[in-house]
Amino acid sequence: MRHCKLIAPAKVNLYLEILGIREDGYHELAMILQSIDLADEIEVRSLSEGKIIVSCDHPQVPTDNSNIAYKAGELMAKEFPQAFAKYGGVEIKIEKRIPVAAGLAGGSTNAAAVLVAVDLLWELGLTQSEIEELGGRLGSDVPFCVAGGTVIGTGRGEQLSPLPSLDNIYIVLGKYRSLGLSTPWVYKSYREKYSDRYIKDRESLASRAAAVHSASIVKAVLGKEAKEIAVKMHNDLEKVVLTEYPQVLELREEFAKYDVLGVMMSGSGPSVFAICESHQKAEVVKQQIREAISDEDLELFVTKLSNRGIQVV
Ligand code: C5P
């Protein structure tokens, strides 16, 4: 195989709790990560030269070695030098549909797709957990993006426990195109304001992380109860983003005015999403928000929760 095409879905966080800080400077988290149908399309092609080339149709996405998809190619070349020498480099084309710097794992899912593609092109025969382990070296959300679905994520977010999948639940998702947030900045701001609340001792951290498995939102996920899930959604990072960015707070408040089951910011933001009772209701809510906020800078999507991560097409 010289070439493959992949679908790389975005994620939202149904739950994100910050428990404490780790020795490596990352935060200890308890999350529920959820794939959605909104996805990028990735094409990966073997090159005769030993180079990595990235191109993207979105002007805000860098194509140099700062792009995490490029880093994924670089990591594979470093880890598998013989295959790199045998099969050559890779050309990675990204068709960006996922909003950028949005808290939707847009970069992480592209990196996960490159790992899956290179494994196939170079006939490496890696297992899912080997690909996830490589992904963890690129970013905390990359391991989740490989198989996707509905998953409890603890540690940095890379320790994954799958839950039964949720699908057929529709959401409306909104993001201002020109507002992108840096994840390190969001976590740093949270730490500056709230580190006094962090759990300090190892044992209590471990038991708090374990407790997420029996949290009420997990029970709602197990029961596939959209209304219960929607009212139990939580994201600690809202505390910093909604206070620093009134535009995001206003957008969240606008979403909550309509017939939705619950509203939340995803990940480190600034995208906001609302769970709706049906596809039809989601379309109506999207229209109502569009009428209330005519600003073209606001992108709005109707999409649904999905049980799939990276798909080879
Ligand atoms: O892992 P990733 O590169 O996606 O993380 C981006 C940044 O987000 C990290 O550099 C760190 O500042 C913050 N972060 C964190 N704790 C996590 C995940 C991310 O502090 N568990």
Gist of the model:
With 313 residues, the chain is of the alpha+beta class.
Question: Gap between N and C termini, in Å?
Answer: 13 Å
Which ligands appear in the coordinates? cytidine-5'-monophosphate
Amount of helix: 25-40%
**Shape call:** globular
Characterize the quaternary organization of these chains: single chain
Based on secondary structure, the structural category is: alpha+beta
Number of strands: 12
The run of helices and strands is EEEHHEHHHEEEHHHHEHHEEHEE
Mean of all residue-level pLDDT scores:
97
CATH class descriptor name of the largest domain: Alpha Beta
CATH topology (level 3) name of the largest domain: Ribosomal Protein S5, domain 2
The parts where pLDDT drops under 50 for at least 5 residues are none
Count the domains. Answer: 2
Radius of gyration: 19 Å
Question: Largest sheet, if any?
Answer: 8 strands, mixed
Please give the count of helices. Answer: 12
Name the CATH architecture of the largest domain.
Answer: 2-Layer Sandwich
- Beta-strand share of residues: 25-35%
Distinctive features:
313 residues; alpha+beta; Ribosomal Protein S5, domain 2; Alpha-Beta Plaits; 2 domains; eight-stranded mixed beta sheet; four-stranded antiparallel beta sheet; 12 helices; 38% helix; globular; binds cytidine-5'-monophosphate
